[in-house]
Amino acid sequence: MNTEPFKLVVVSAGTSDPSSTRLLADRVAERAVALAARPQNARPQNARPQDAVTVSVIELREIAADISTALVSQLITPKLRQAITTLGEADGIVAAAPVYKAGPSGLFTSFFGVLDNDLLIAKPVVLAATAGTARHALVADEAMRPMFAYLRTLTAPTSLFAAPEDWSDPALATRIDRAALELVLLMESGFARVVKDESWSSYPHEYGSAGGAQTEIDLDTDLMRLATGGSAG
Predict the structure, then answer these.
(1) Is the pLDDT at 215 greater than 60, yes or no?
(2) What is the bridge-based pairing of β-strands 92-100 and 6-12?
(3) Which tens digit of pLDDT belongs to each residue from 83-131?
């Protein structure tokens, strides 16, 4: 059994400080930490020891210029590389975005758009969104969930949304508890680790993906020699 702490990563696309988007994500992370420390008799047999969750935060507003650079030039700056490495090492993710123009912010979608498609395979993710009106309550499920399905993550069944009036509503706390529990159970199940260890080769990969780790492509074939300007045979 791996006794290393779970690595939970919060990705917040909030642009203000303090940010309601970051606040919502932090509440999920805090509940996940508390639930992971629940009594041993309430945990799966293969779960790691109590108090075994560390939390890292990626504030996208702090690397906005780096994300823009990657979009237009494919240049990955050191700051963006660090964020990508942190996500690649995550056991679980809380992804939170403000809603602009009836969808998650461009900063949020741009960040996940520059990631390679293999980085987050099978990783558990809680989706969260905030907005100034309850009319955007379905953004997490209708706009964010399909993107994370494309990235082949394991999104928790419960998504979260908070408009200004929701912060005083006990129903939001109930949903946060539910989403956090789902995230912890998914991390404790070891699903992502088993997929990487036993099923990785069954997924289609791009050359050099997963942070440059996916290189298992036979370059000594007629097709590859032709593609690089050589001749067959």
Answers:
(1) no
(2) parallel
(3) 999 999 999 999 999 999 999 999 999 999 999 888 999 999 999 999 9
- Torsion from C-alpha of 135, 141, 142, 143, nearest 10 degrees: 100
Six token digits for residue 232: 């067959």
b/e per residue 130-160 (b: at least 16 CB within 10 A): bbeeeebbebbeebbbebbeebbbbbbebbb
pTM equals: 0.83
CB 180 within 8 A of CB 31: yes
Whole-angstrom Cα distance, residue 25 to residue 18? 12
Contact 10, 26 (CB under 8 A): yes
The residues, any chain, with a CB within 8 Å of residue 136's CB and separated by 6 or more, are 99, 102, 129, 161, 163
Strands (E), 143-229: 154-155, 160-162
Q: What is the pLDDT of residue 69?
A: 96
In which element (H, E) is residue 11 found?
strand 6-12
Identity of the residue numbered 148: F
